[in-house]
Amino acid sequence: MTGIATTNAVLAGAGLAILLIAGLVALFVGLRRARRAGALVAENARHRAFADSSPALAMVVRADARIEAPRTLSDWLGLEGEPDTLNDLSTDGTGLAPDDFAALTEAITAGQKAGRPFRLSLRVQHGARSLLAVGERAPHALNAPGGVVVWLFDASELQTQVSRLGEEAEELRGAFASLTALIEAAPMPMWYRTRELRLAMVNTAYVHAVDASTHAQVIEQQIELIEGSGMGGPLANAAIARDTGEPQTAAVPAIIKGERRMLRIHDLPLFDGGAAGFAVDIEDLEQARGGLKRFAEAQRAMLDRLSAGVAQFSADRALIFCNQPFRRMFAMRPEWLADRPEFDRVLERMREAGRLPEVRDFPGWKKEHREWFRAEGAEIEESWHLPGGSHLRVVAQPLPEGGLLIIFEDRTEQVQLASARDTLLRVRTAMFDNLFEALGVFASDGRLQLWNNKFRLAWGFDEQLLAGHPRVDALAEAGARKLAKPDRASLMSALVRAATVERQQRGGRAAFADGRHFEFTAVPLPDGNALFTMLDISDSKRIEQALRDRNEALEAADRVKTAFVENMSYELRTPLTSIKGFAELLHGGYAGDLSESGTSYAEAILESVARLSGLVDDVLDLTEGDSGPLRKTAVDMEHVAQAAAESLSPLAKERGIDLVVEVRGSAGAVQGDQRRVRQAIEHMLRFSIGGLKKGGRVLLHVDGDADRARIVVSDDGPGMSSEAAKHAFDRFAHSAATGRDTDRALGLGLPLAKRFVEAHGGTIAMLSEPGEGTLMTIELPRQ
């Protein structure tokens, strides 16, 4: 029993212990649940506070269309009471708009059946309130199986902002598209770099400039526009623009399409930390700038070579340039000009040098000329008459960029020349009117420009006709009636046309109806005009006619004289022949033996007859015109010379003259009349022998060349004066005139020799000086 009691006690203790433990556990669990319930209450209160302060309203739509929503939803929808079902959200005149309610109902149905979330914009009737409904399947915690939870946001203000932002976004998208199109269509390379200065966007011009195929290739390969670009090159400017926020500009050379071009690179910082850039081709600008600089330098060099003085003033009226003639003209020192003196100071210095006109009010004159800087479109030109008689032409030109350019031209010489020209014109007019010749000056178009009084009187033209400056054709037509042959009036037109158009001097003659004769001449003038002269040759024509009549009379007398001489010569031959025959009979003893004195008388008669016969032959030869026709054969010059010398050897021996013949092997032969050639040599030998005294010497020399034969007759006689030698070949030159003691009183030998030689186409000449002898030369052509 004791054991049982013990067992029972143990079991009871164990039971109590178990109960105690169970109670402790229950207490612990209760306390923990109480703490959790408190936490849940607190969490629920916090969630309620969040829900009450939330801008969105939560509406639970159960499967049977019943809804659970806060009171605020009725206020938003303008409902009088709290809605119980989905249909209560839209009634006549209140709640949601019918179209929006239908869309919401359809979206909720789809969410209940398929669990499809949705987002809708809802409009409230009779108000401007807009709601945004965001729905999804209700979670299990809401204990609404098959239901949908809809979050409603008051999007009235948000919608306005969204609409405005949408419009702004649309405008920005349009502007961005336009800007992108503009950048893409820009003719200059443009690009965008990221913060790391890597190329992120380029336009088509950039792609073409770097000879790439696509934009992607440029971005992928990071092809730079400037070769050798690095952090020290154009990228440095991009980095500076990015870091400082200030645009950067640099001019760098580049190779574009195989050509070297100068580019101006612009790097612009962007708000996102990147940098944009574009390149402007300034090669043409640089070329133009360089050309403009070279042009300015060439222009100034050219202005220094001008004879006119040039001064250029800037917009602030300072002298910025003047050439050498200006400095010389106004005695300006270079060191004074180096200070860029002002316009007024330059005028004062000119006045000090005496190179300004004398004016009473010099300050007012300066003020007036300062207005040149503001003159617009006016031609500024003045003439300055300076002390000492100098004349300056002053031309001023305001410059487009401001300032003034003044040119000073020294026209002193031109004024003097103009004065001299006026004087010359007056002298020319006076001389024109007092010349013996009739003069007219015709312009290149054939119009009469100037004339003198004799021109008008010669033609009998009216002053009114000439004052109209008629054409030469009209003048010729008006003057035709004055001519003996009216058709000769065209000569005036032809001569003027030849002088003005063909630039040739021509002349002619015309007879007037009143018996006057004029010689016309048209002379081209340097200025393109023509000078037409008329010289009255009436007296000359009369003298010419008288001389012609006299010449005809002399020719007739010469013919009569020649006929008389020929007849007389032939008549003399008959008695001479008889005298010679009877003298020969007497000398031959046919009439008996003669005494010694009779024989000498007969010989003297024969000698005189021979001399007289030769003289008659010479006269006949001289009066036969061209000495009769030549009988040309091959003439051996050596044989002819020897024959001529032999014929005169007796005469030479008789006078005690040494006659020497010298024939060279080059003498050869000529084509000619052997008798006439021999006679010419004989006449020359006879002339030389007749002028020498006893003991004298005559040389006959014959030679030649391929073209001609030469015959030289020289003597060592007393010679003769140049005047006598000049007339030695004249007809009937007396021996006293030539200084020769010849027996040919009429002096026909040398004239005949000249005739014979010239008939062969040859020449004859004489060279003689007193006391030096005489030398005569004949040259005969081979052919």
TrEMBL record:
EC number: 2.7.13.3
Domain of life: Bacteria
Reaction(s) catalysed by this chain's protein: ATP + protein L-histidine = ADP + protein N-phospho-L-histidine
Keyword Methyltransferase: no
Top EC category: transferase
CDD domains: HATPase, HisKA
Residue ranges of every copy of the Histidine kinase domain listed in the record: 567-783
Membrane spanning stretches: 12-31
Keywords, sorted A to Z: Kinase, Membrane, Transferase, Transmembrane, Transmembrane helix, Two-component regulatory system
Name assigned to this protein: histidine kinase
Native organism: Stakelama flava
Source taxonomy: Bacteria, Pseudomonadati, Pseudomonadota, Alphaproteobacteria, Sphingomonadales
